[in-house]
Write a structure and sequence with these properties.
single chain, 66% helix
Length: 70
């Protein structure tokens, strides 16, 4: 089962969209790099935020339905 990312606000989705538009298929790698940079600076909040964005980008790249389809 795919773990759904937590979306606390619309800016999370907007940031994921910006990365996808700018980096294309490498957007997930860019989000991971930003998360790692935040962790290295000791910023746990931004680390967690960028990890969620990374998960969201991966989820958006899946072409198959998942979960319950109504």
């Amino acid at each position: 089962m795919i773990a759904l990312p937590f979306l606390p606000d619309r800016t999370t989705l907007a940031d994921a969209d910006d990365l996808i538009r700018h980096y294309g298929d490498d957007a997930g790698y860019e989000a991971a790099a930003r998360a790692n940079a935040s962790r290295e600076r000791g910023n746990a909040l931004h680390f967690a935020r960028w990890r969620q964005i990374e998960r969201l980008i991966v989820l958006l790249s899946v072409d198959e339905p998942f979960g319950t389809v109504h």
